[in-house]
Amino acid sequence: MFSKILIANRGEIACRVIKTARRMGIKTVAVYSEADAGALHVQMADEAVAIGPAPSAQSYLVADRIIQACLDTGAEAVHPGYGFLSEKAAFCEALKAAGIAFIGPDVHAIGAMGDKIESKKLAKAAGVSTVPGYLGVIKDDEEAVRIAHDIGYPVMIKASAGGGGKGMRVAWDDTQTREGFRSASNEARSSFADDRVFIEKYVTEPRHIEIQVMADAFGNCVYLGERECSIQRRHQKVIEEAPSPFLDAATRKAMGEQAVALAQAVQYRSAGTVEFIVDKDRNFYFLEMNTRLQVEHPVTEMITGLDLVELMIRVAAGEKLPLTQDDVKLTGWALESRVYAEEPTRNFLPSIGRVTRYRPPAEGPGAQDGSVVRVDTGIHEGGEISMFYDPMIAKLITYGPDRATAIAAMGDALDRFQIRGVGHNISFLAALVESRRFGEGRLTTNFIAEEFPDGFHGRELPAEVLTRLLAVAASIHRRRVERDATISGQMPGHHRVVPSSWVVRAGRDNHPVEVTAVDGGHDVALGDQTLAVRGDEWEPGQPLWTGTVDGHALAVQVDGTGIGYRLFHGGAEIEVQVLTARAAEFAALMPVKAKPDMSKFLLSPMPGLLVTVAVSVGDEVKAGQELAVVEAMKMENILRAEADGTVKKIAAEKGSSLAVDQIIIEFE
User: Fold this and answer.
1) What is the pTM of this model?
2) pLDDT per position as a tens digit, 69-91
3) Residue 249 contacts by C-beta under 8 Å, 6 or more apart in sequence?
4) How far apart are CA 16 and CA 11, in angstroms?
5) CA distance 588 to 566
6) Which residues on neighbouring strands pair with residue 357, listed in sequence order?
7) 277 with 201: CB under 8 angstroms?
8) Which fold has domain 333-456?
9) What is the pLDDT of the chain when averaged over all its residues?
10) Is position 301 annotated as part of the catalytic site?
11) Which residues form the Biotin carboxylation domain (predicted)?
12) Which pLDDT tens digit goes with each residue over 122-141?
């Protein structure tokens, strides 16, 4: 067994690998860029080596620096995590030449499966079902259009060396094919230094289901069940679960056996994932094989009881798999939510900056329902989300003996997950898992687009839940006033009186309440009902209120706003004020501040790089016309005109670094 390994990665996956290595008694070496000098994975490792400037092309993607770090520290093996160098055959070859073990598959398997075009040919030869398409290299957008006509719309345009949702476009007509070919090629060139793309039939009503395989160097290979990854946005997975609520035992077995056949065809070893697209009739087609650990591997670990990182390390050290296919048992249900630094209400634009508060839910077993909470993260309070890397903050995983319990545990854990300082998608994740359609398991890769056709603007809470939140607001305000009334130095006979009558003001609506102190909390009379609000030792200033309202367990995040409270629960965010009746009357008279008219400006919707400006001063533009392209975290975003107009001024040059809402173009 290895005595020391180096993790050639950063963020949550580096921390994840360190945890297993520590449990196995293996020392770890972290590598870090200038931007990550204070990162959590650097703090957790036994040793850390600086490898270059912030851009990954000058640090995490420089194989020579990784290898030198191994030689300098005596690391015997490298775990690549996912992304960066994890699927680079040349890196694996260089490690082998330096006498350093690669904790992953060998060069042949990486090369064979890393090229999506070649991998589909190999899959077909191995008897694996494949999607109809054109696997040759496409020269230009006109050839792409001709191929799309031959296959029939809709089609999927994909980068051959792609991954992580980058270099992928769905096209429904010739115009989208031309644009998609160009954007996919550009993203592929930027992210993977390989601009080749291919085209295949886009399956409607599709599910994205993948099979986890594990193999050793002795020809043993098993599949560890499936993961449902259909909840996606822009082809990037958002929520994953295991097992799939859609598959039956026969389909699971058929998919698993085909995945194993493909792995054995390339003499695969280590952990790998074979991804399939599955239609509404459970017909399945090979998409690709990822020759690395997947982001969503924890859900498989939760239902199998296996540590995939440990198995990878043991296989790389020359050990045989300790289990056969008959030993694989799937127990319970697990969900994973990817917590990103992004702004869901602004079309999911990335958010960067310092994390001023980071309080994940407590890990471990739940109350008495058999649930378990797990958090994989690379962030700590005071850490920074950089523009140079993926915006993932954490992965929140919940387990239950059944799907309903796992979903309920996820909803509660999301309510308790506190992040401030950067935008995040926790409210969006909560809205997804709370939706009726998700609970019923009616999932496709179009789920998000269909459920939120006009984008995400926050969740509208059911009336009974909103009423409970109003009661909580009244209770916490009464608790704060009660504490304020105990201030020292009050004149004898002039002690402050705590009133019981208040008005909870939410938006423009006033809700009169009567709040009565009782043991363990308050009784709140609101309208024609009285709600029993019982808090678990909450004190003013604490950011999380937990307790019950009429017996319903609630976790509510509370931010003070000076004259009120901002409450977060169940995917919704509401702002309230708790006022006296007289103050509420005055508040109702206050005018609503109008937003400034910015219709004559093209603003950058995110922090990023201005890649191109497609117009000049004096140009006449039409609604829908492309104006500029902004790249953020290696994803290209085309900005278009919302109305006809004339360009008055170009306010930012190509190559500029843009801030959110920075003016790019001004119109007359």
Assistant:
1) 0.85
2) 999 999 999 999 999 999 999 99
3) none
4) 9
5) 19
6) 420
7) no
8) D-amino Acid Aminotransferase; Chain A, domain 1 (3.30.470)
9) 93
10) no
11) 1-453
12) 998 999 998 878 877 788 99
